[in-house]
Model the fold of this input.
Amino acid sequence: LTDSKKLISWLIENILIDAPTIPQVCERASQFFRENKLESFTQRELERYVRSAAQQFEKQFFENIYSKLSARTIDIIDCMLINDTGNDEDISETLNIKLRHLKKDIPAARLKNVSAEINKIDRITQAELPCTIFENLSRKLMQKYYLRIMAELPSNIVDHDPETRYSTMAIFCYIRSQILLDNLAEMLIQLIHKIKTKAEAVLTKEILAEVKCINGKFDILYTLSNTAATKPNGVIGQEIYPLVSQETLQNLSTELRNKGKWYQTKVKIKMRSLYSHAHRKMILTLLDVFDFRTNQPEFNELLNAIIFIKEHKDIHDKYYPNASLVPINEVVPTEWLSMVKDENNKIDRLNYEVSVLEELRKQLRCKSIWIEGAYRYRNPDEDTPKDFNDKRNHYYKMLNLSLKPDDFINSLKTSLDQHLRELNENIPTNDKVKILDKDGGRIKLSPSEPQAEPVNLKSLHQEINRRWSTINLIDILKEADLRINFSEQFHTVGSREKINKAEL
Done:
């Protein structure tokens, strides 16, 4: 009995914080027996003590969280659970937000849906959760209770004792606020990316239509190149102007200006149009939600640019009134500079916003910029163990990685080059692979031959038939339900059930 109490205390302090399963805890218990030079309990005794430890750990865990919750937090959780029935989805007011609303993800990228998600985040923020407690807890442990709330009905949650009810709801709200922020950040990234891809698609379509309808432009370019190639020593006035007039050449030159970046310039012009007419209001609404941070000083100017955009979002003029106040250096990419700043050093407002947003998307994806309160887009310093800098060699050895970045990069390049060569050499002679002309080129893969039947599969089928004959397991389940009606205990996690009981 003395040893069992020591085991339970050891499990609570060292093992259960990582939310392992019962078999995993039993396996880890062998470490306790080795360290204390004890003979292991029987499997039945061990499982009993493990379950006892799990119950005690959970009780202490909930009591600790519950003691840190304020009266305001408890009141807001009660509001989320009470009268959480019906199908109304009016959450324009944060006070109307219930648990069922928090469980639902954003259905589509629309301003109405974005505003609803922001209201959910505001409602959770009003609860004033003790976030410092959760920051040091195992993510796996919190996910366990988060998923428990996701699967339970409000009426079942209310039936729990206060410590369990409010602690699990606090964990749910904490995790859910991170997920909501991550979803909105993902939407911001996709919207910014969509502006560029849509602009490229529209422009490509226009170019193809122009090629089909107007044959003169490319014929002229062909004539110029062919004449210059066959008669390099001829005088331009004598050989070229009779074929193509000076005015036509000037028009072509104007169209193909900007050092050969005509296409990129056209794309940026279209991006500005799409941004101002379709996405600007939603993107600026999203920007107001996030608290952007960075650990790298070189990106502080980008954060200042985002703040500047939010502060001046209601300006309707084409140019900012005071160009000297606009953060430009280390913010606007070189390819955008000529479109952002004109000859008079005036800053085009919309072009500036698009260029900053493009740079924000790039840095947000690699976590040079991160979001306070998010999980996927959290502080990158939290991605590594706290003692990483002190034990760098130890962790690199665990990962089987070189401390020199050049060695790591070179190995990746070598691997990529090798596999691309193998692919390139294999495709022409591979009967299973075909390159199609459809939609600019597609790869078609033919299915491989089926694998050989496993040796014991036939014996397994025979044994199943011997035990259960030809009765399907679904028939056994249905027969059991007709006798004891156990499906009455099943409840949907959604806000309503579409299938009536008889049909189910």
